[in-house]
Write the structure tokens for this entry.
Amino acid sequence: MPAIQVPNFSKCDSFAVTSFGAKAGNQELSSKAIALAINKANSVGGGVVVIPPGEWLTGKIHLKSNVNLHLAKGAVLLFSGNPADYLPAVSSTWEGMECMNYSPLIYAYGCKNVALTGQGEIKAKMEVWQKWFARPKSHMESIKRLYNLSWNRTPLKDRQMVNDTANLRPQFIQFNRCENVLIEGISITNSPFWTVHPYLSKNVVIRNIKVYAHGHNNDGVDPEMSQNVLIENCTFDQGDDAIAIKSGRNPEGWIYKTPSKNVVIRNCTVKNGHQLVAIGSELSGGIENVFIDSCEVLNGAKLDHLIFIKTNERMGGYVKNIYASHIKSGKIDLGILGIETDVLYQWRTLVPTYEKRLTPIEDVFLEHIMAADVKFVSRILAQKELPVKNIVLKDVVASSVEGEKYIQENVQGFRVD
């Protein structure tokens, strides 16, 4: 993979938000001050917007090119839980489908050289978002409507999803169509939806962050149709996947033809999460060249798999060149490696299969991996029409295996060394 370009703000001026009128405890003044400081840093060609120690209430933050939002040690940005504070709607996504939705709490669109750094904390108020975790019939009908809008290639401006019934929660942080992105050092507490979402972005470095988010769909980091991504030295305590690599659902992935590619994950720690790394299920644009190294899942963590590749007959796309090495884990509820090609979740009954596109999966290599108790070492469930190909396990062991070690349906070229 090419060298990742990391934005450098070492020679830039700093702009404290207090100089622009931010007041502790005053959401309106602090939100306005942060926006003014970001505009100033952008207008002079680059700058560091500093959030000083203390708790600062704010609404949405929209970053701009050549801006580093820096949280000093002891600084807490506390984001409003009022959905109205994240309007007007912006170009965003919901589970792999583009739509006009509530703004992510921290949002950047089409930016270059942009960063979120420091030793401080960003935190979401959750009172309303928690109520939205439920999926009543009205919500399900709304996502069904979005699915059909996407399937029919309806223009983005006509995919308005902000209403009283959809309740599509926004991501905490979304870098949408950005280049040269750095997220470093911060702590993130709570999230309405996916926590960190690089979407159609290039050159993304996420390092030394701590994420705690135990709500519904609270993945840690979701690189989607993004390339040249480094995630290192991070700690995840999640209600869903720690890291989930995605590339659009159905037409979104097929139209953009932008795979998630060249993703390196190393030296990360998982305290809780459904998987250490999930690949899919939204992967219609393809996923390739993923390297996972020197990660640890702590004893007592709630985990389904270390590596889980999931797709279905509607996705298309492809998965290839997945490497994982030097991983250790405590007990895993299911197993070390899972590959399943019939994962549809709520979509199975919401909408029919309009077009069948299977997902070729090949070249998955695991080595030097140790886990405690598992139900299986690997379980691969594929279609007869398109077997999974070339899976190699080398020195992949568990302290105890409850059932069959290697479960296989429609696999070609499975090898254990």
